[in-house]
Amino acid sequence: MAKHAVVIAGGGPTGMMLAAELALAKVDVAIVERRPNHVLVGSRAGGFHSRTIEVLDQRGVADRFLAEGQVAQAAMIGATVLDMSDFPTRHPYSLGIWQNQIERIMAAWIAELLVRIYYGCEVTGFAPDDAGVKVELSDGESLRAQYLVGCDGGRSVIRKSAGIEFPGWDPTKSNLIAEVEVTEEPPRGIRHDATGIHGLHRLEDGRTVRVIVTEQQLGPSSEPTLHDLSAALITVYGTDFGIHSPTWIARFTDMTRQAATYRAGRVLLAGDSAHVHYPAGGQGLSLGVQDAVNLGWKLAQVVKGTSPDSLLDTYQDERHPVAARALQHTMAQSALQRPDDRIKALVDMVSELASMDEPRKRLAGIISGLDIHYDLGEGHPLLGRRMPDLDLVTDDGPLRVFALLHEAKPVLLNFGEPGGVDITPWADRVQMIDAEYVGLWELPVLGEVSAPTAVLIRPDGYVAWLGDGKDTGLRDALITWFGAP
User: Fold this and answer.
1) What are the backbone dihedrals phi and psi of residue 148, each rounded to the nearest 5 degrees, phi first?
2) Which side of the chain, N or C, has fewer Cβ within a 10 Å radius?
């Protein structure tokens, strides 16, 4: 029986991001992936929002994704695009990039990090005990791990087997999405009607057309067929445009659910295993990647014995409210896409409000993830929020803050007198950098804040402690997040 510190069920973007985080921390991690490889048929979902691009930048790999995607102002509410080009970030935009590209890039990255992947099999069950988890695979083999993480999607076997409830809202509408070839030239643009949203778009190869159509009634849970797609198109357009040769066809709904808990002992959930929602707003991939980045360093420290097992409870405390808010937003977006006369009146009102500066910033902050605030107690506005990517001056020359996070290690930046902050007992865990910064400290949505004299940054880029000329509370913060000395 092969042994690993952590086994991840599911090798999508969330599972791969978590594997990368653990591998960077030198933790033995393995992925169990049902597909034979990471070649994804069809483009599937797509897009990252600003904070997720920042997270990839923190690990030094954002350029790989930016090179293949297209930047755009894509955050929307109602009929209004929320321009965030004035946000204080190096990435004040969304990135249009298909999931097959994302998975290919991520698979290449984790290969560099020597992550083990068990292709062509699934986790079929598990048995936790005091020392770890026995993980049963569909090929008859089994693995042994200290922790098992379910990144196996909305129908998660891990979540169901762990007995974790999945409360929420049943679906009220469904859409078909596909990539097909056609014999008739499709119309350009998006069509809205009393049913919902529809559209056809020719892809870059000039041959394949991406189709999305809202069904007249809620579709069955069975896999959709070319006939189902044809019938739905004829109802909306009067023709199916001669669709044939489908690359893939899928059905999605506005079902909205969130796991009651993200943890059951040695079993944890991340990504779609923990929350599902309508794709309006394109937040799904970003939520999963950020789940992984919040969980990864915590799980690494527990596995290595640096921190107690209770550190993992902060994953639930921090990420559950973030996803809950995102689900509210996607339900609101879904409601605004029902274009009858009454809803149109609401869309017009919301769109007018969203064009105003303050609502625009607040809404764009939610969609982009740049306004995420983990509740770490009272204090400076930066506490619990993402650290800005400042241009620092250090003894080693100019450095960006995000460059210091490439290895997923915590950092203490001292802007006061050199040597004025002593973290000697944690010197093997926390990077200590004496730095200077000349410029404004500005946060998305909140605006300008006062400059601290020191900042303790977690591996996920969020601020765990700030100094005001004294080290009051620093020792407690170090113990809380990075273990006893």
Assistant:
1) -120, 130
2) N
pLDDT in tens, 433-476: 999 999 999 999 999 999 999 999 999 999 999 998 888 999 99
CATH class of 391-482: alpha beta
Q: What are phi and psi of 313, to 5 degrees?
A: -65, -25
- pLDDT tens digits for range 282-326: 889 999 999 999 999 999 999 999 999 999 999 999 999 999 999
CATH architecture of 174-253: 2-Layer Sandwich (3.30)
Two structure tokens written together for 396: 């080693």
Distance CA 260, CA 406 (A): 33
Domain boundaries, the chain: 2-168+257-368, 174-253, 391-482
Positions of E strands within 427-485 = 431-436, 441-443, 447-449, 454-457, 463-467
What tokens appear for 375 in the block?
A: 């509740």
Quote the strand ranges of 156-313, DSSP E.
168-169, 174-181, 190-192, 197-202, 209-214, 244-253, 256-258, 263-264, 267-269, 275-276
Domain 2-168+257-368 has CATH 3.50.50.60: yes
Report helix, strand or coil for 32: strand
Distance, in Å, from the CA atom of 207 to the CA atom of 246, rounded to the nearest integer, reads 11
Q: Does the predicted model carry a pTM greater than 0.85?
A: yes
